[in-house]
Amino acid sequence: MTTVFPTNPDPTTKAPGLARWRSAGDVLSMLVVLGVLILLFGSFSNHFWTPQTVKTIVNQFADLTVVAVGMTLVLVIGGIDLSVGSVMALSGAVLGIAMADWNLPFPVALLACLAVGAGCGLINGMVSVMWSIPSFIVTLGMLESARGATYLITRSETKYLGPRVEWIARPLPGFGASTGFLVALVIVALGHILLTRTVMGRYMIAIGTNEEAVRLSGVDPRPTKLATFVLSGLAAAVAAVFQVSRVSSADPNGGIGMELGAIAAVVIGGTSLMGGRGSVLRSFLGVLIIAVLQTGLDHVGASEPAKRLISGAVIVLAVIADVHRGRWGESAFRALRRFQKTIDQ
């Protein structure tokens, strides 16, 4: 027997072809915003339109890219993960201690780092799923717990690793992109395939759309939700490796604010905060917009408070756009259909 899941209850999907129209419109609008930002910052800074700026954008935001992939999956199932920044710090701290204090080789330290990230995600998922506690509360608790654990195991000291990890963030000769960025692109591709071409991805979208209907159709949503939180924690651990390699050390203060940047990038990419709709590829475009924005603000000499103010405004605007996206898409689609009928007549 074939299990049929409910479609997204968004009324705009009742019109044939509207989902495709809305997706194309989202991508086009993001490309327009990206182009406007590039032109705007290029006109205010003589050094923005340079190969060095491109290298900065490409190689310094691999960690945000990977975290955004995990955040997309969590938001699609109707959850949220506020702990990714602290899990990054804890995973990076384990990597630093394993290499600096225990003199373990990088592959072994890497496995320990990834295990910590996946373990934190497993705890988030188990508490949220097994006890039906909102993921907002659970991951908020993990945010504090993981950060406290990071300070305890490092004694609030930075672990310097130097050349042993720098090669991950160093641009490849004649290529410009780093190993970390290439791995991040592979993770984006795998996340896209998972969400759009696998049974698990179908379950994720169905759970975010109507979890009760999924349960009534005979599918237990708990394993899928648990696996999603594990993937988010694992993504945070991978991002920790990229961050540690970029700064050549494991900083217990690393990852602060990463959850806000990831949520902003994902929501800008069109992933719904209500669940049931999302795209890893569009989240990657959202990361590019955040990266260009932050790099451009650095080029024009914006202060740290100003950058935080602008980033907060971007998040609010992105949420507003998310709430009204369906209404705008339906209006535009119906206007196009009326225009086509007029031409046909």
Give structural notes:
Helices cover 74% and strands 1% of the residues. With 345 residues, the chain is mainly α. The protein has one domain (51-320): ABC transporter involved in vitamin B12 uptake, BtuC, CATH 1.10.3470. It has a two-stranded antiparallel ribbon with strand order 1-2. The longest helix is centred in the C-terminal third of the chain and has 41 residues, at 304-344. The termini are far apart. Residues 4-16 have low confidence and may be disordered.
Keywords:
mainly alpha, ABC transporter involved in vitamin B12 uptake, BtuC, two-stranded antiparallel sheet, single chain, 13 helices, 345 residues
Short description:
Keywords: Cell membrane, Membrane, Transmembrane, Transmembrane helix. The protein is mainly alpha-helical and 345 residues long.
Helix and strand run: HHHHHHEHHHHEHHH
Report the CATH architecture.
Orthogonal Bundle
Net shape: globular
The number of domains: 1
How far apart lie the N and C ends?
45 Å
Uncertain stretches: 4-16
- What is the class in the CATH system? Mainly Alpha
Overall pLDDT level: 86
- What's the helix count? 13
- At the fold tier of CATH, the topology name is ABC transporter involved in vitamin B12 uptake, BtuC
Main sheet? 2 strands, antiparallel
Radius of gyration: 21 Å
Number of strands: 2
